[in-house]
Amino acid sequence: MKRARFPGMRPHGRKRSVRGRAAPSSPGKARRGDRRRPGDRRRTSRARQPDDRSDLQGGLRRSVSRTPRARVEGADANSRRMVRGSRSGGPPPRARVRRMGRRSSSASSAPSRPRLASAGSTRAGRPRRATTNVWPNVRKLLDSQPWDSLEPHVLKAGANPHEVIPTLRRYAELVLDWNRSVSNLISKNDEARIVSRHLAESLEPAHLLRSSGARRWIDFGSGAGLPAVPLSIAGIGERWALVESRRPKALFLRRLMMDMGLRGIDTVHSRLETLTDDPSFVSAFDGVTSRATLALGPTLTLAARFVRTGGVAFLWKGSGREREMLEDSSWREWWDFDGILGAGSGNITVARFTRK
């Protein structure tokens, strides 16, 4: 008589043990560890390995649930790397999980390898705005400038070129340093011609300013200090007030006075319109200078509030000077036109006016 067969059971006969050895056919003689019910899968001695993403990440999250947030994020990142490694044939995930533990004291105490990063960057390989001066040395650029061309202008102003030109060179060096590292004072294209384009144009009418007899001067929109600073270095005037409304340029002027130790120069960080009713500025100056700021008419209208009767105004203007004089003739109420003087090698002219 045949015995009934249950689903999932082998036919009556010899069975295979868990370890592959022949087992007795009688159930009563089977080992205790080999007893199983019908339908059970065969047990193995090896522990279950996490072979998919969900099981592996779930186990890691449970293991780091009581750790700080930074370690949890690191564990998630490591789990993703381990899953990729297991798919690509790398070492088993369990071996990598063991590496996530605390490092040994010898490894933690070993000096770390220095990271190569650019100046001012947060991570290696990602450049950011440099915090150090990476521009070429401005002194080499200034060595190629025609400094000898300034001697005739300095001599006509009644100053000593051997004392004035080194000071002008130091001034030009500070202008270029600030222009390259902080904010724009002059055009980048004018750096290679700062002597012929800026210093020479500022100093060429210096003898006219000296012959006017003015001692107290106000400069509109000084910017980099042109033309007031070169004129003051050449000995023009006793007191200068440099009015600049833009904060970076006003900071440069104040820094310039401290670094060079220039005396008799005051920096005024304000707009000209706000100073027209200030008692300390109204009719308090003998002369006014302005280089490439406002149009001619508005400039002379504002200057009439600051310059006393009989004072002078010197305006550095370009090719549009004649057009500006004709378009707005309101300035004739307070000023008389005294003539012009060419400055520099371009089309820059210096127009002179006398306060009525």
Give a brief description:
The protein is of the alpha/beta class and 356 residues long.
How would you summarize the topology of this molecule?
Elements: E1 15-16, E2 22-23, H1 53-63, H2 69-87, H3 93-98, H4 105-109, H5 138-143, H6 151-156, H7 161-181, H8 194-203, H9 206-211, E3 216-220, H10 228-233, E4 239-244, H11 247-260, E5 265-269, E6 285-291, H12 296-306, E7 307-317, H13 321-327, E8 335-343, E9 348-355
Parallel strand pairs: 3-4, 3-6, 4-5, 6-7
Antiparallel strand pairs: 1-2, 7-9, 8-9
Description:
The chain is α/β, with parallel strands linked by helices. Helices cover 36% and strands 15% of the residues. The protein has a domain at 138-355: Rossmann fold. The strands form 2 sheets. Strands 5-4-3-6-7-9-8 form a 7-stranded mixed beta sheet. The longest helix is centred in the middle third of the chain and has 21 residues, at 161-181. The chain starts with 14 loop residues before the first strand and ends with a strand.
